[in-house]
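Structure first, sequence second, as always.
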């Protein structure tokens, strides 16, 4: 078996990096960057880890344009990594209804 084919069969690409499905990548990003808020129950209250300033997911989503073209600007504004924003978007995709309701409640307040 050629070396690259053997690596790929072991879940790695020729550069030694893990090959992840989009779902596995989203899982990894969420696990690395998102945590429950200790004082606010509910999936809509999850936030970035404290090391990433602990911003609520809903507030970052509310700052992003629908197409995500302003990701770099939002990362600068919040002083977080682009990867953290990708984690926020992955979490949002899985919990869109709850987070949209949280955003609507915030706008109504």
């Amino acid at each position: 078996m050629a070396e690259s084919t053997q690596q790929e069969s072991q879940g790695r690409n020729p550069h030694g990096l893990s090959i992840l499905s989009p779902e596995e990548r989203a899982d990894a990003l969420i696990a690395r960057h998102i945590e429950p808020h200790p004082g606010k129950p509910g999936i809509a209250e999850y936030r970035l880890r404290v090391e990433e300033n602990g911003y609520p997911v809903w507030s970052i989503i509310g700052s992003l344009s629908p197409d995500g073209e302003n990701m770099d600007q939002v990362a600068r504004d919040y002083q977080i990594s682009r990867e953290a924003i990708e984690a926020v978007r992955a979490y949002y995709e899985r919990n869109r209804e709850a987070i949209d309701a949280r955003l609507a409640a915030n706008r109504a307040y």
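Margin note: The chain has six helices and two strands.
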